[in-house]
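Action item from last meeting closed. Structure (203 res):
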C-alpha cells in the first residue's frame, strides 16, 4: 500500500485555536461528538496509547478517510499516535477492528434519543456532564470564577444527589472536557497560584 494513501488528520486543536485544514468535520460536530467519544471510549484519553489528553488532541479517523465523519469512525488520539499510525501496521489493524466494533455496537443510537430518567450508565454520564456544565455556568456567571476544587466537590455532590452517581474521577473528566480548548471554560491560576475556572473569552 502506498504511503500517499494515508492522510494525516490535521484537525489539531491547540491553545492557538482550531486549524480548519479540513472543513469536513465541523467545529459544531466536534463539540457534539466530544462527550460521546469520551463516554464511549472510557475517558478523555488517546484511544491508541491510553494517555490522558491535554491541550492537543485529534479527532482521528479509524479508516483514514477524513470525509467519513460518522462517529463510529472517530476516536480521540494524541498527536504522536496520529502520526505513528501512518506507518504502523498494528495500529492500522487495531483501528480497523475498533471501527468494526463501533459499527456493531449501539453506543451512538443509545445516546441520541432525548435523555429521560437515567436508566443506563451512558444516560447517567450524560446527565452528570450536563449537571456539571450547568453548575459551572451558574456560578461563573454570578461570581466570575470558581475554585477548581470547589467545582469538583460541589459537582460530585450534586451529581450523586440527582442521579445516584458521581465519582470524583468522572467529574474530573467532565471538567477537563468543559475546559478543553474548544469548550466554554478554562482553568487558570489565581494570584495565590490556586486553580480556578473562568469563562473562556469570546465564548
Ligand atoms: Zn497516543
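Sequence:
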Amino acid at each position: 500500500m502506498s504511503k500517499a494513501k494515508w492522510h494525516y488528520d490535521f484537525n489539531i486543536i491547540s491553545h492557538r485555536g482550531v486549524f480548519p485544514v479540513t472543513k469536513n468535520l465541523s467545529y459544531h460536530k466536534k463539540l457534539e461528538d466530544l462527550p460521546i467519544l469520551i463516554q464511549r471510549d472510557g475517558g478523555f484519553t488517546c484511544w491508541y496509547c491510553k494517555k490522558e489528553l491535554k491541550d492537543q488532541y485529534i479527532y482521528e479517523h479509524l479508516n483514514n478517510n477524513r470525509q467519513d465523519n460518522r462517529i463510529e469512525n472517530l476516536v480521540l488520539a494524541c498527536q504522536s499516535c496520529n502520526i505513528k499510525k501512518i506507518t504502523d501496521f498494528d495500529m492500522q489493524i487495531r483501528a480497523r477492528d475498533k471501527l468494526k466494533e463501533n459499527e456493531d455496537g449501539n453506543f451512538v443510537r443509545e445516546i441520541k434519543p432525548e435523555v429521560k430518567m437515567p436508566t443506563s450508565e451512558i444516560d447517567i454520564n450524560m446527565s452528570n456532564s450536563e449537571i456539571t456544565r450547568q453548575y459551572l455556568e451558574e456560578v461563573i456567571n454570578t461570581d466570575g470564577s470558581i475554585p477548581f476544587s470547589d467545582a469538583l466537590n460541589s459537582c460530585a455532590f450534586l451529581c450523586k444527589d440527582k442521579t445516584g452517581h458521581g465519582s470524583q474521577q468522572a467529574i474530573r473528566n467532565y471538567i477537563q472536557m468543559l475546559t478543553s480548548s474548544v469548550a466554554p471554560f478554562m482553568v487558570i491560576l489565581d494570584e495565590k497560584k490556586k486553580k480556578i475556572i473562568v469563562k473562556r473569552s469570546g465564548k
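Note appended to the action item: The beta strands are 13-14, 17-18, 58-61, 74-77, 145-147, 185-189, 195-199.
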